[in-house]
Amino acid sequence: MAAYDHPDSATFELIPVLRALADPARLEIVRHLGRVGEANCATLIGTRPKSSMSHHFQVLRESGVLRTRIEGVQHRNSLRLEELDARFPGLMAAILNAA
Amino acid sequence: MAAYDHPDSATFELIPVLRALADPARLEIVRHLGRVGEANCATLIGTRPKSSMSHHFQVLRESGVLRTRIEGVQHRNSLRLEELDARFPGLMAAILNAA
DNA sequence: TGCTTTGTTCGATTTTTATCGAACAATATG
DNA sequence: CATATTGTTCGATAAAAATCGAACAAAGCA
What we know:
Chains A, B: Residues 16-93 form the HTH arsR-type domain. Two copies of one chain form a homodimer. Chain A is an alpha+beta fold. The first copy, chain A, has six helices and three strands, in the order ααβααββαα. Chain A starts with 13 loop residues before the first helix and ends with a helix. The A-B interface holds A 14-15, 18-19, 21-24, 27, 87-91, 93-95, 97-99 and B 14-15, 18-19, 21-24, 27, 87-91, 93-95, 97-99. Chain A binds a DNA duplex (30 and 30 nucleotides) through helix 4.
């Protein structure tokens, strides 16, 4: 599998980022990554099928919320916290700290 | 016209708030209110028809993002910044400061 | 009362997103 | 090579949101 391309942080846009975060499955992914740092897709799938999850990861990736690194068969995801904070200061902190 | 009912700040939920903010028309409304403090609907309508705008105000109101006060024929809107910040610290600041 | 202003509600579309099974691709391992 | 593991892609459907004209409602004013 070829590496994904990720948007440059200079091109992050607020609305796609907010839309990416405004979904229960994706917010859960984001919060889990906020705790564990990095995780592959499989460990983040709850009850939903793989194809649904793949879609959610794509939305998160394309908006800039997370980065996916390929290692063997696994795709390891992590939040792009520094870049997000540079572009939207305080946003991810607010999301991750929210009750 | 009877007064609107607004959700209590204790019942604000993150996903509806994010969804409310993740729309171009609504984000523009929010940013405008962030600058001017209070405004009636008419001054916030750009090119879109009234019925569309009424819908956007409803979404913002029901999620807790803004409050609508009726004064005569006009409906005056303002952000619920203190309450939002109490529940989601830093969130609205991040939104309003974002490039 | 009749007219104007401000905004809502209704109803019908259209557009956008989410969902998920099935087939596929890439890597690793026996 | 055969098989398992991990995740993507495709395609069809369903669900959710946005859009907007037209009719309506409330308040103010001549």
